[in-house]
Amino acid sequence: MKSIKESFVTDAINIKTYPLSEYDNIVVMFSREYGLIKGIAKGVKRPKSKLGARMQMLVANKIMLKNGRNFDTICEAQALNTFNKLRSNLDKLTYSMYLTEIISAFCTDSDEDSGTNEKIYELFYGILENIADSKDKIEIILNVIKFQLKFMVQIGLGAELKVCLKCGCKIEDGAYFSVASGGVVCKDCRCGSDVFIGLHKKIREFLIAQQECKILENQKYESLVEVNYVQMSFKLLKKYTDSHASRPARTLKVLESLG
């Protein structure tokens, strides 16, 4: 739980909003210091609200909140980034909302590890900027893959992609990914009740590069990798995150329904 103060200021990105009353909304945010927080945006649905559009989903604000018994109250909000380019493209918006589902499923309202919260906030903010500037759907998914891999590292569930989880040998070829265990095994250790997914060497090398690169860094794999490799990598990581989440992500079903 976050430290008890009469009021506090933090940078936060809105990840969900829902109605509380005729004019008030509850806004769920991921904050730099405190992780997930909820605040009441009083009067936000009134035409002349001082909070207004700053309380929309996927807006980053510097906010001041006052502690309350059940919910904090949002007193002020100064927009840091509205990520406007996300809202004019269905793919960009939907995949960004998918990221909010991952954060909601794994993160808590705790300031006990503010360092981890800050790294997740910076990752989320940076990936949203990348998605907003993406030129096509493949570039969008590349950024989502980066987020999936780096986020799981931050929460202690990083995928092991270099050495066998069972015998510890360095795998050159013939790797199999265990969704339950969160990493690869060699062909000699592919046994037991786990479900193993064959992982092509090029896909594994691509995933390792994405896991280790900086958010804004492009490497050779991004320009050379085939489209189906990107799609297969995303689906593999979605299975992995869904299997360890408190609830599976549902946002992408919107895109699936549209074909």
Protein traits:
259 residues, alpha+beta, 5-stranded mixed barrel, 3-stranded antiparallel β-sheet, 7 helices, elongated
Structure report:
By secondary structure, the chain is of the alpha+beta class. The chain has seven helices and eight strands. The strands form two sheets. A five-stranded mixed barrel has the order 1-2-3-5-4. A three-stranded antiparallel beta sheet has the order 7-6-8. β2 (25-31) and β3 form a beta hairpin. α1 (90-106) runs parallel beside α3 (137-154) and α3 (137-154) crosses α4. The chain starts with 6 loop residues before the first strand and ends with a helix.
Structural class: alpha+beta
How much of the sequence lies in strands comes to 15-25%
- Report the biggest beta sheet as strand number plus sense, adding barrel if it closes: 5 strands, mixed, barrel
Q: Number of helical segments?
A: 7
H and E order: EEEEEHHHEEEHHHH
Helical percentage: 25-40%
Inertia-based shape: elongated
Overall pLDDT metric: 89
| Strands ordered across the widest β-sheet | 1-2-3-5-4
Our measurement of the CA-to-CA distance between the termini, rounded to an integer number of angstroms, reads 42 Å
Rg calculated over all Cα atoms:
20 Å
Instruction: Give the low-confidence spans.
Output: none
Count the E strands.
Answer: 8
